[in-house]
Amino acid sequence: MSEYVIGNAKIYSEDRVIESGYVHIKDGKIAEISDGAYTGPLTQHDAEGKILLPGFIDIHIHGGYGNDAMDASVEGLEHLAQNLLSEGTTSFLATTMTQSEENITKALESIVEYADQQNGHDAAEIVGIHLEGPFISEHKIGAQNPAYVQRPSVEKLKHFQDTAHGKIKVITFAPEVEGADVMLEAFKDDIIFSIGHTTADFDQVNDAVSKGAKHITHLYNAGTPFLHRAPGDFGAAWTNDDLNTELIVDGVHSHPASIKIAYKMKGNERFYVITDAMRAKGMPEGEYDLGGQTVVVKGKEARLKTGSLAGSILKMNLGLKNLLAFTGDSLENAWRTTSLNQAKALKIDDQKGSIKAGKDADIIIVDEDINVLTAIKRGKIHSFS
């Protein structure tokens, strides 16, 4: 594996911002981070004063670039993973949908097959699976297919996890439906339970957290809204410090002011930028399939023919750019919402999530507008400028 230096860079490291420095990369790992100019014998790649960030980790993404995890296609997953580098995503959780047990099983089998043989240098890396449904509420279905909603079952989740070879890291579930508490108790130590597609009220959400739930799935979408006498799912998400919160930061799924409120309430350590993207991301406007349902993509929106929003076409770099614009916060504070927070939740922060010596060289070079110029995946350089 090659050894080189990325020099003349503004580096957002885990504990500080280096205004001008370099990163020494060796054998796919970060060997050293330093201030100033590099003067040694190694080949140096000039970042031209641009910004170095850790590669993004998208913990909720169904697809993009014409592909979807539910296609159960190894080739499709590879194509998706290769293209994700262009938006700065270097790791992700392949995300399934509420579908038939047979189709979910096939999707899990293909994800495992691809993940077990994926090339860690040429594409974004699948670091696990997000099982979105089928154990959700039919009353908050969103773009999921109501025909396939199932009641929570320890046996069925065990089947899915066995099929996934233990790779299910997050599950979206509705805590108020029958059997949810039993399933939560059985798997809370091995899977992150994320509350979503739910009619749970404020007290039910907080009760689920006391029993082991840890996340909120795409806050403000398919949940119970805040009312001053009934704070709902949204109020619990804002106020419970044991809940970390996903949010689709596209300005379509939630008003920019709502995003600012959530970020202000959760802070930069309990907030995750996600895309919840579907296959139409990176594709022309038109009609696409999502879990067997037709989605119409126009402008920045993807909707079912009923008018319901159907995932997004958001790219992770634009999600971060939007977060900065909507909240007025600094990149110094906000960068971790796209990488380090996710790595910590997944317990892979010893390998990924920040620019730190000893971690994988998953690094991106962006300009001031968060346009991705270069993605470095385990030391291999991919240029997009």
Tag the structure with descriptive keywords.
385 residues, alpha/beta, Urease, subunit C, domain 1, TIM Barrel, 2 domains, 8-stranded mixed beta sheet, 8-stranded parallel beta sheet, globular
Counting structural domains, the number is 2
Task: Supply Rg.
Answer: 20 Å
Secondary-structure-based class equals alpha/beta
Helical residues, percent: 10-25%
Specify the number of helices: 10
Name the CATH architecture of the largest domain.
Answer: Alpha-Beta Barrel
Name the CATH class of the largest domain.
Alpha Beta
Largest sheet: 8 strands, mixed
Q: How would you sum up this structure in a few lines?
A:
The protein is 25% helix and 29% strand.
